[in-house]
Each structure stands twice: as structure tokens, then as C-alpha cells.
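Technical note accompanying the year-one report. For the benefit of new consortium partners, we illustrate the data format agreed upon in the data management plan: each record pairs a sequence with a C-alpha cell string. No post-processing was applied to the example shown here.
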Amino acid sequence: MNKYTTNKDESEILPNLLGLLTAEDIAASEFEGFLYAELFLSDKLSKRTKFNINYILKIHKLALGHLYTFAGKYRTVNMSKGGFIFPAAIFLPNSMNIFEQEVLKMLPNKYACKENLIADIAKVHAELLFIHPFREGNGRTARLLANLMAQKQGYPKLDFTKIASTYFDKYIYAVQMAANKEYGWMEDIIKMTFVDGAELSRK
């Protein structure tokens, strides 16, 4: 199997445990699931919370376990979205282990300054979206994790609405740059999601 072969597109309607048949019904159920996961994990968040692989799998399981049998598990199919091909499923366990060792385990329990927090959220966010470990819900899992990282340090929930409406193309480009370990674009994106965030500096 070629590392970058794809045989699935993320836009298809997936079989689900509730027997939902329309994109609208599935989207509503997924929204409710991620809202539940956000409320549950925010309530449990503490200074001792560790963001690791198991925590990421837990986010996904809490959010989508009512809907999909694959919730909380790595995808087993190769995928693409908008012409961009994600790393092949066969490499996911190794890719996630490297991500944990080189990125997640390096996260400090407390940050000396906001800039360092933004840099780490950007790195985690970009790498997780680039790896794309799940069959569905990768973006929402990554955004919820970013929120929890910020909230652990005493910041309010991040605001991704401006990104979706105005800077989505740059957001996708920032994810693709993670392939080269270039996180500057994503740092600019994450900086904007903070309540006092500035406009995107890179044009």
C-alpha cells in the first residue's frame, strides 16, 4: 500500500448506531456529543490533567461513542479531504506514539507566558489535524483539546468562529505546513482565537 493512497472521502454519510440517514440528523447528534464531551471534560479539568494519547481517545469516545462503533479508535481507512491526502491508516499508531513522545510529553504543567502556551497549542493542534487519526470528528476533537489546554491555564474558551468564516483557507494551509514542522501559520491562527487575539498577521 502506498503511504499516501486514499480510498475514502470524509464527506460521506457513515453507518451509525442510531440509524440516522440524513446529514442534518447526524450533524445534530455529533454536535450534542461534542457538547457533552466539552462539559464533562471541562468539569474534570485540573492542574494535574495530562494531555496524552489516552486523553485524546477519551475526547473522541465521549463525543461520538453514542453514534459510532469506531469512537475512541484510530481510523482503519485511508482518507482525503478537499484534495489533501492524510497519512495512511497503517502508520497511525506509530505516528501518534511519536506525537506523544515528541510533543505531548513536552507540554509543561504551567506556562510562564501566554506566547509559549499559544506556541504549544498551535503545535499540538496542527500535528493532530495533520495526522488525522479518526474516521470522523478530527477537527472538533482538536479544537476541544485546544480549548482544554487554554482553560487549564486559566484562559476562557477559544473562539474559532472567525477562523471558520474568514480564514479557513489559511487554517487548512497551516495544517498542511505541519508536515514540514512549520507552525508559524498555526500560531497566528491560534493567537486570533484568544478573546483578545489580533487579526492574522500573515497575508
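Partners are asked to follow this layout when depositing records. The chain has a mean pLDDT of 90.
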